[in-house]
């Protein structure tokens, strides 16, 4: 499987991947009301802008449609939106995206990458060299509450 940059026309598909991944993977970390509020069917239009403004990567399935996503937020130097459709978990797609983001960050001169992980994904990021900074609360506009998260960092080497 190959990593490629998403195009704005795929925004809705990427939003769907996000929602399915959260609904599947985060149900042990957050209650059903939070999950429902966090994953509205209608995509915020700003999500398409994220694909335009940042290196937003996808991995395609056999049908040439995205099954995993993730991007480097150029304004913050953070990794965002690492999501995989539940039926494609444990196939290495998110790892491919993490590595593409690390490579992109190095090319752009970043010295480190940060992220705020959901509790259920912490061990995944640790396997990719991220280290724990602190437990935190992430203010979510969609849920209108603070979500428990794990702040992590990865030091990039040239």
TrEMBL record:
The keyword Acyltransferase applies. CDD domains: NAT_SF (cd04301). GO terms for molecular function: acyltransferase activity, transferring groups other than amino-acyl groups. It comes from the Bacteria. Pfam families: Acetyltransf_10 (PF13673). InterPro entries: Acyl_CoA_acyltransferase, Bact_Acetyltransf, GNAT_dom. Residues 1-157 form the N-acetyltransferase domain. Keywords: Acyltransferase, Transferase. Signal peptide: none annotated. PANTHER family: AMINOALKYLPHOSPHONATE N-ACETYLTRANSFERASE-RELATED, AMINOALKYLPHOSPHONATE N-ACETYLTRANSFERASE-RELATED-RELATED. This is GNAT family N-acetyltransferase.
């Amino acid at each position: 499987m190959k990593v490629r940059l998403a195009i704005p026309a795929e925004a809705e598909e990427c939003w769907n991947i996000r929602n399915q991944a959260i609904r599947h993977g985060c149900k042990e970390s957050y209650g059903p009301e939070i999950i429902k509020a966090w994953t509205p069917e209608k995509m915020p239009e700003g999500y398409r802008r994220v694909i335009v403004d940042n290196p937003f990567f996808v991995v395609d399935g056999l049908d040439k449609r995205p099954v995993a996503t993730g991007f480097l937020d150029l304004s913050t130097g953070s990794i965002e939106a690492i999501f995989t459709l539940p039926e494609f978990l444990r196939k290495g797609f998110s790892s491919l995206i993490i590595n593409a983001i690390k490579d992109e960050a190095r090319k752009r001169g970043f010295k480190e990458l940060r992220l705020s992980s959901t509790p259920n994904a912490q061990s995944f990021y640790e396997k990719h060299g991220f280290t724990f900074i602190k437990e935190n609360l992430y203010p979510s506009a969609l849920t209108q509450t603070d979500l428990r998260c794990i702040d992590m960092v990865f030091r990039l080497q040239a």
